[in-house]
Design brief:
The chain has 357 residues and is α/β, with parallel strands linked by helices. The chain is built from 11 helices and 12 strands.
Length: 357
């Protein structure tokens, strides 16, 4: 009876837009397959407001899940946000600049919670990641990158990153692929789990072949980053919305998603440091940069949408979350300890306010 009451209370709170409290964390449901899609550089109002250029995302998909209206990026520019999602590491001056040169992270120390102190791009093998956690726990992961082609594609150590600008027929960006910034991945067989997006439909054929964590990054046109795109597409939210219309049904109609899946669609950051560097969730200066958002403490408000059989269609909540919250929430689902800033005291994680159905 108590569990039934809690579920009903959470649903009522979500339908009324009531923010969750610390007790909203609760016990997560038995979600065994997590899908994450990251789009690029859009603030909350542009994406979710009434004039959105992405009606499939902001209306059709919005009606199928719970909208997290107070979800934030953790920094500017792109790369530090992606790295945060899979390791809990905060920005440094080079990741803030999207690592124009693919150089080593030179570590000079350690700081709480779990922060490698130093500067650079490719973290040493001693820095733990969500993929390494999953593998140790007997779970699986895979990253799917549109236009990447060769698995685990990245520049040579010390080389200029030639994927910073899109090319016709090749709009892959290494800076939107956080997995290639860790030696524990690129120097091991784990690198084989970093593949081109074209492999996704085959892997979704059955729950057995679907990774426990599926991390998806569209190319520089379809993630909304470029507008217009080098191939003549409009780009921005228009192209991102068309891409979602093609790929989200592939995910949501898969056996693994139907069985025990959760899809999170979010953005790495808002428009940019000059327009929104706001933060949430107690984020402050880190050991490697005083201002994670370059001109402020965060990456701005973006919002996020969560779809699952455990979320109430058309619901929303205004509890504060960021990319560290997402990492901690995924770790909670698989019974893993929290890495880096995901272990911050008081950080909100997904609970009955998100799993509200």
């Amino acid at each position: 009876m108590k569990l039934k009451y809690l579920a009903v209370a959470a649903l009522i709170a979500a339908s009324l837009g009531v923010a969750g409290s610390a007790s909203a964390a609760g016990a997560p449901p038995q979600i065994g397959h997590v899908f994450v899609i990251n789009l690029e550089n859009k603030g909350y109002d542009e994406t979710w407001g009434p004039g959105s250029a992405a009606p499939y995302l902001s209306q059709t998909l919005r009606e199928q899940g719970v909208l997290l209206s107070q979800y934030y990026g953790i920094g500017h520019n792109s790369l530090d946000n992606y790295i945060a999602q899979i390791s809990g590491q905060g920005p440094n001056t080079e990741t803030q600049a999207d690592c124009q040169v693919y150089d080593e992270f030179t570590q000079t120390g350690q700081a709480d919670p779990g922060q490698a102190v130093g500067q650079g791009c490719v973290y040493p093998a001693s820095v733990p990641t969500l993929p390494s956690q999953l593998t140790t726990a007997g779970q699986t992961w895979k990253a799917y990158l549109e236009d990447m082609g060769t698995p685990c594609r990245h520049p040579a150590i010390g080389a200029v990153d030639d994927t910073q600008k899109a090319k016709v027929g090749d709009q892959y960006a290494a800076r939107h692929n956080p997995f290639v910034y860790f030696h524990s991945i690129i120097d091991t067989p784990a690198c084989g789990a970093d593949v081109d997006l074209s492999q996704l439909p085959n892997d979704l054929a059955s729950p057995r072949t679907t990774p426990n964590l599926t991390y998806i990054t569209p190319n520089l046109c379809h993630d909304g980053h470029d507008a217009p795109c080098v191939d003549g597409e409009p780009g921005g939210l228009v192209s991102a919305d068309a891409w979602l219309r093609q790929w989200v049904p592939v995910i949501t109609s898969s056996p693994a998603f139907s069985q025990d899946g959760m899809l999170v669609i979010t953005f790495d950051e808002s428009d940019g440091p000059s327009s929104d560097s706001s933060a949430c969730c107690g984020e402050g200066p880190g050991p490697n940069t005083a201002l994670p958002g370059i001109t402020g403490l965060g990456g701005g408000r973006t919002g996020a949408l969560v779809l699952s059989k455990y979320t109430a269609p058309g619901s929303w909540n205004d509890r504060s979350y960021n990319h560290y919250s997402l990492l901690a929430s995924i770790e909670n689902l698989f019974g893993l300890p929290h890495l880096g800033y995901a272990a911050s005291t008081g950080l909100n994680t997904f609970g009955l306010d998100v799993y509200n159905r």
